[in-house]
Amino acid sequence: MTSETSEQLETLVTPEMEARKGVWENERVSYPVSESDIRKWAIASYWPEKPPQLFWDEEYAQGTKWGGIIAPQDFNPFAWPIERPPGREASAPRTGVGNRGMNGGQVETFGVPMRAGDVITSRTRLKDWNERTTRLGLTLFTETETEWRNQRGEHVKTRISTGIRY
Amino acid sequence: MATNVYFEDVNVGDELPAWSRTTDFMNWNRYAAVNDEFVYIHMDDEVGRAALNERGAFGMGNLRYTYLLNALRDWIGDEAEIREAAVQFRAINQKNDTLTVTGKVTDKRVEDGEHRVYLDTNVVNQQDEATCPGHAVVVLPSRG
Fold this sequence. Notes:
The complex is a heterodimer of chains A (about 170) and B (about 140).
Chain A: H1 15-20, E1 25-29, H2 35-46, H3 58-62, E2 101-110, E3 121-134, E4 137-149, E5 155-165
Chain B: E1 19-23, H1 25-35, H2 45-50, H3 61-76, E2 81-88, E3 97-111, E4 114-124, E5 134-139
Antiparallel strand pairs in B: 1-3, 2-5, 3-4, 4-5
């Protein structure tokens, strides 16, 4: 596709996308969350300030409505899998019409917090897309829905992320 | 127990206390380490330039989202909840930018038994450029 221009392409939507639309896939199960994972996440994300005690001090956290340490809501229990997703550490940005991309953003709705010992199950589906001509040329905005539940089936969060390809 | 703000004390138009970080490699690398986000465009100036950012490697969108959540958490305290948060990545986080999370209350109402406060949010850089418009919904404790 690298030799084509966006003017030559009528759509970036593929038959594979049509087939995947609305179908839950890519189910993953996290390693158990640990207190140490949560503490490190909080330190890194609040750097260089000290993170809130709620994320690392069990005695303090027991006195809150949560009754113990919880994870920050952006905590990612799927970081550091043994099996590395292919292409993830690519050394060059993708080029060519329809292959260039960027992260457009996301909206997340949160349920119960994550805690040490939790095992999170994730599943994903291609929710919808919208294609239009922008200053980048033909541009495809895709919405991907990801749902996380804990080992009790409780809703942890739903993320709708927007991917942009052009 | 830290209750920073009650539902009854919040008014439409109130602003989120400013929350800032200067994003040098210490911030980026630590976040990349915990989020397993070692992507060359965020690490290598040559690859960043190849991705059409003249100044080289650029910051992770996820880190700006994290900053939004942290600013909300610092404002609402530990007895409250973040129910929803959203961001749109509109501009790049350059190395050594000072990013400030901003927010303004747009609505407050009781829904589904929760005392919810709605905010429009953003992450602005040192040139006061809006990099990351978004919104949030938080659930606050009530005096009632």
